[in-house]
Amino acid sequence: MKKAIIALVSTLCIIAAAIGALFVWEHQSKLALESQVEDFLDACDTDATSLDVHGRPYILYAMRDSADLTYVDLALQAGTNKDQLLVHRLSDSHADRLTRFVTFDHPDGEVEPIERADGSFTDSAEVNGSRVTFSADVADDRLQVFADGSSTGQIEMKQDVTVKGTAVTNAGVVVELEYDSPDCPAAA
Question: Which strands make up the sheet holding 173-179, listed edge to edge?
Fold first, then answer.
């Protein structure tokens, strides 16, 4: 009976140690992926305030030396309240695609976003009782947001981007950008 208890306790200890080692390996893998993304951003002089690597289990992505999707919060510029870069499939210091979402502050006044029937946001809002349509354009290294053709905000851009869409949300006017070249974000 004693031998059976010793064998059972030994087996449980081995299993517990293996599970503990797996958790440590997973955490180390996440740190390795974060480091890979940080190196990519540092090489491009991008000022990240935080990053969140997605893609679990981290062990499998780290073994492939590939970060599937990373959300990178960038330093805010005047007139913005959120600026986030998405790094898609980073491997060997090369990203497949870079997408950026810049949220500009609402214009002064009472702003009520206009939603579609499915609850998604549109490029329009009721501003002080009048319907206003928002748009965005990139020219001369500047991203500008317009409300019915009048400029309502702008930020500097360090790399060529294409405006993919504009939406008015409860948080502000969100502009979706796609980088023309994923080799270097140089975003902030």
Answer: 48-54, 66-74, 80-91, 94-104, 173-179, 161-168
The answer to whether 69 touches 54, Cβ cutoff 8 Å, is yes
pLDDT-based confidence at residue 64 (cuts at 50, 70, 90): confident
CA 162 to chain centre: 17
pLDDT tens, position by position, 130-152: 899 999 999 888 999 999 888 88
pTM of the model: 0.82
Would you list the DSSP string of 105-163?
A: PPPSS-EEEEE-TTS-EEEEEEETTEEEEEEEEEETTEEEEEETTEEEEEEE-SS-EEE
Count the alpha carbons within 13 Å of 41 in the hemisphere toward its beta carbon: 26
